[in-house]
Amino acid sequence: MDMPNRNLIKELYHSYYQESNLDVNKDFSSHWVHYSNQFSVQLDEEKSILSLSGIGFGDLMTRNPVQQCLNWISHMIHILKHEDKKNIIQLLHKARRICKCAGFSVSFDVFKQILSLNLIMRHMTHNMVNKNRLVFFIIGDGYGLMGSLIKDCFPNSTIILVDLGKTLLFQAYYCQKVHKKYIHASINNINLVNNIEEIDFLYCPADKLNLLSQVFQIDIAINIVSMQEMKPESIQGYFNFLRLNLSKENLFYCCNRERKVLMGGEVLEFSKYPYVKTDQHYVNEYCPWYKFFLHIHPFSKNSVKFLKIKVPFIKKFDGPIIHRLSRLSVDI
User: Fold this and answer.
1) Is the separation of the CB atoms in 266 and 34 below 8 Å?
2) Nearest C-alpha neighbor of 31 from the set 268, 189, 290
3) How far from the centroid of its chain's Cα atoms is residue 81's Cα?
4) What would the pLDDT profile of 233-260 be if each residue is shown by its tens digit?
5) Mean predicted confidence (pLDDT) in 64-77
6) In CATH, which superfamily holds the domain spanning 6-58+108-327?
C-alpha cells in the first residue's frame, strides 16, 4: 500500500522493533513491558507493512456479527439519551468512513472516542474555533482513531501524536492509511520552527518528547485511558510539558481510571495527578460512557447485577473512570 511517508514506518520499526534500546524501555511501566512484547509487525523486503497486531490499547477489530450488533445497540442507547444527538450522529458518520478506510469496525471503543471528542468540541472557545491552525496534542492514541477523527473535523490543524515508539508505529500506519493526502512527519526529520504549520500529522516517540518543547503552542491536549498505565513520573513529565507548551487559552481532556494497580505493583490514582488549584475544570465527573458495555459472553465476573442477580450481556468496566476537561494554568 502506498504511504505518504514510508520512511516514517521504516524509522519506527528500526528504532523500536529491531534495536534493543534500554534507554527507550526505561519509560515503560510494567503494563507496557508485558503487552509490548506481544505486538507483532511484519514487513516485506521493501519495508512495507504486511501485517501488524497489537494488544492492550483498544478493540477496533471486532469481527463477530453478534458483538457488532451489540455494539450498535450500545451506540443507540447513548445517542438516544444524549443532548447532542445531531452532533454525535455527524461524528459517527465521519468515524464510519475512517473505520472503513482503516479496516476497523465501529466498536464501542470507537464510539467512546466520538463522545469524548464531542465533549471537547462543545467547550472550544470562539477563538479556538476560528483560529487559522489549531494544534492538537494526543498522548497515547492507540490505533490513531482520535487523531484521524479530529483531522476530519478540523482539516486545517496539526495533529501531534505522542506514544511509546512501538505503539506509535500503529498510529503512523493507520493515520497514513486513512489520510493519504496529508503531510505526515517524524520528529526526527523536520525543522519544527519553520514547518510546523505545514505539517498535518507529527509523530513523536515518548522518549523524544524533549524535542517538542518550547517550539510551538498547543491548543488542545487529550489523554484517554493511557495515563492509568504509565509510571507516575511519566505522568508528572507530561503535565510539566503541557504547562510549558500549552497556549494560555487551552483545553486538556484527561479520561482515566480512578485507581489502577499495574501488574508490577505500580499504583496510579487520578486524585494524585499533578493538577494545581489554579487549573480551571469545566467537566469533572465519573465518565458516563464508561459505566457499562455490552458483550457477547453473557456472564462474567464483571457482569452488572440487579437484585444480586447477574444481568446477561451487560458488563461494567474494571474500575470507575473519571474524565476531566480543564484549562491548565501555564504561568506557574
Assistant:
1) no
2) 268
3) 25
4) 999 999 999 999 999 999 999 999 999 9
5) 95
6) Vaccinia Virus protein VP39 (3.40.50.150)
- Given a contact cutoff of 8 angstroms between Cβ atoms, the answer to whether 4 and 182 are in contact is yes
pTM for this entry: 0.94
Mean pLDDT value across residues 168-177 = 96
For residue 56, give the 3-state DSSP assignment: coil
Least Cα distance to 136 among 228, 11, 42, 224 occurs for: 224
Residues 32-37, mean pLDDT to the nearest whole number: 80
What one-character-per-residue DSSP string does 169-238 give?
Answer: HHHHHHHHHH-TTS-EEETTSS-HHHHGGG-SEEEEEGGGGGGGTTTS-EEEEEEES-GGGS-HHHHHHH
CA 308 to chain centre: 35
* Residue 299 Rama label (left phi>0; alpha psi -120 to 50; beta): beta
C-alpha cell recorded at residue 136? 492538537
103: left (phi over 0), alpha (psi -120 to 50) or beta: left
Q: What residue segments make up the domains of the chain, in order of their start?
A: 6-58+108-327
